[in-house]
Write the structure tokens for this entry.
Amino acid sequence: MSGHSEFQPTSAPAKWLERRLPILSLLHGAAVAFPTPKNLNYWWTFGGILMFCLGVQILTGIILAMHFTPHVDMAFSSVEHIMRDVNYGWLIRYIHSNGASMFFIAVYIHMFRGLYYGSYKEPRELIWILGVVIYLLMMAAAFFGYVIVWGQMSFWGATVITNLFGAIPVVGDGLLSLLWGGFSVDNPTLNRFFSLHYLVPFLIAGLVILHIWALHVPGNNNPLGIDVKGPQDTVTFHPYYTVKDTFAVVMFMLFFAFFVFYMPNALGDPDNYIEANRLSTPAHIVPEWYLLPYYAILRSIPDKLFGVGAMGLAIVTLFLIPWLDTSRVRSARFRPLYKQFFWLFVIDAVVLGYIGAKPPEGMYLIIGRLATAYYFFHFYIILPVLGLVETPKPLPESISKSVLDKSAAGKPA
Amino acid sequence: MTNKLQIILGGVFLAAAAIALPLDAAHASEGGELKHVNWSFNGPFGTFDRAQLKRGFQVYREVCSACHSVKFMSYRNLSEAGGPEYTDAETKTIAATNKVMDGPDRDGEMFERPAEPKDRIVKPFPNDNAARAANNGALPPDLSLMTKARHDGPNYVYSILTGYADAPEGVVMADGMNYNHYFPGQQIAMPPPLSDDQVTYEDGAPATLDQMAQDVSAFLTWTAEPKLEDRHKLGLKVVLFLIVFAGLLFASYKRIWKDQH
Amino acid sequence: MTASHAEEPTRRDFLYIATGAMGAVGAGALAWPFIDQLNPDTSVKALASIEVDISSVAEGAAITVTWRGKPVFIRHRTAEEIAAAEAVDLKELRDPQMDKDRVQKPEWLIMVGVCTHLGCVPLGQKGEYGGWFCPCHGSQYDTSGRIRKGPAPQNLAIPDYVFVTDNRVKIG
């Protein structure tokens, strides 16, 4: 993908293949010789961790699909069949259900890393946009997956989320029947959601390839946010970053394993262990934790159409960030004001998530509205204005110089 | 180097706990604060107490099963590893005391036969409507997943079973409802199911209300999560492996990067 | 890092080999649950035996029951069929087996109705040997279910079974 590979195959089969399909030199250029800034910190390992998460979800998902029955009468009990009868079924299912949460934990860290270090800025706008598309597809995949289990939260979550589309004027009702394939969430809905749940991850995989391809054109951003000046600023991807990313993935696996083996249901809702019942709605309908901030935005506006509109805008805003941020300095390390507003935004996102889990009443409603307002304020007012008024700190000359200074300072004389 | 690794490892577990604990708290039940039992299956090394599961099954069989099903359980589960671990012969005998519908036979007739280990544990009612009709319109829920379908399930079931009391003054009870401190709304359709010495334990343990409530809660924890012991055992191996592997990788990482610092 | 430069090569190689080996062991161990899930699960294994009432099967008649997803032939053989089966010279057989080794009670022939060639279900009382004939590729079995002609390599398989009573047989 980077093109500048010096790779020459040595073995006869490799030469044979290379002449016909230069895939070995392509991979060598992308994953071995690829020049990578030498100063990437651990926050940069989340790209690799996300590839791991996607692989885990696809692998465990294919296996679960071998044992799952997408029918309203059997979906819930086929999941229990997996948990009880299938050899290691409990393990595979718990990896998959917790894997969704792990995937979102990793993607949020990855996104906040991008926001902090300005990774979305010229010339990396398209990488960011592809990333946001991947994130949207992840939300879709997670939602479909949550529904097909056919517990109480699945059913009522599906009902509530699909009803959002009913807010669209004129075509809303027709669109709802189209989505459901009936007059309510029912067997046709379950069947199509299962089909889409199987499809979307492969779309994500395709977009991940584009995301990485686009990344390999300018190369990685780095914690200093300055451009690579020459070979002295980089190391080859292998072995330097393969070993670091592998180490990070294994640490992430430890975190993951902690949930799978010792608190497999902590991130889920107990109501989803009750089979879907169309006659009784649970007392509190809440989406999975990773969708809570949007849910809070939706509920903070007391109008169906505008609530849905605000939630949609909250997501669309992510696409616009490369142009909303007017500063030319990438890394928050050299932007004293932005750094503080970044953390304020992190707090705002967490508050929105917290409010999303609470009933929309009293204090929660007021806080939710303030947090929603701040969300938009951050992107549409603070980001553009900061770039104009902020005085950035002086940028270092080069990555290698900065690394040398740092290690010189760190070592005893 | 080891210090840095320890810090990272510690960070991983702290982060896990930090994420999980507030979520835990966010699910606070609307009933009273639950009572807490020091269950044998708690914690990363927890296992079920076989004798307790057997007693719990006895309580289920002699009391709960009059109204509540455990529809995801089969008799064969009773002899599988990680559960009460009855012998195959005992399981057969237990199963055979129940009748199941089978068929059609060669004449097209359905017929009854004694249950076998492969059969699901027989439900008290053929369907939900029959269950409602026999219970004043209230549906006794299936119990197989009860301890996972409620927040802090084992303690919840235990608290409900021991939480009946006379309604405090001023509380107006709906017709046919019973006061229970731990039930959301405090009004529960199920009459107090357990009282002292309601069963005579086969292992001679004293059948106090508290003991029976604990035993049946443990039993229902097993029906909800029959692979709990497998999970705990495999988890230990996986975590130990990953820690050692992470240590080796960290050392390799440091060695490879040595010339860059 | 505390390693001195002098001892570096071997220690470094050992470290990388140990790390790689550990990774390989982990990947291998991880693969097992993903393979084992393909094996029959416990609910399938629990259905592995069935009991059949054979009181209504008249002499010369047969019933077919399903066991582990396969047909099982239960044939109440006539005296002529038994005599024919017992009279066969073992030298004539591709898969030599005495008739008495294939039955517990001579009048009851119980076998898995799956042709040992490629898994089709043979038709009863057809073919040159008065036994079974497989329509797929023309394998012929005698009155004891032994292969006599055609491509199948072995006799029809005999499942494990016991007579619980004279009229009930438990297969598997």
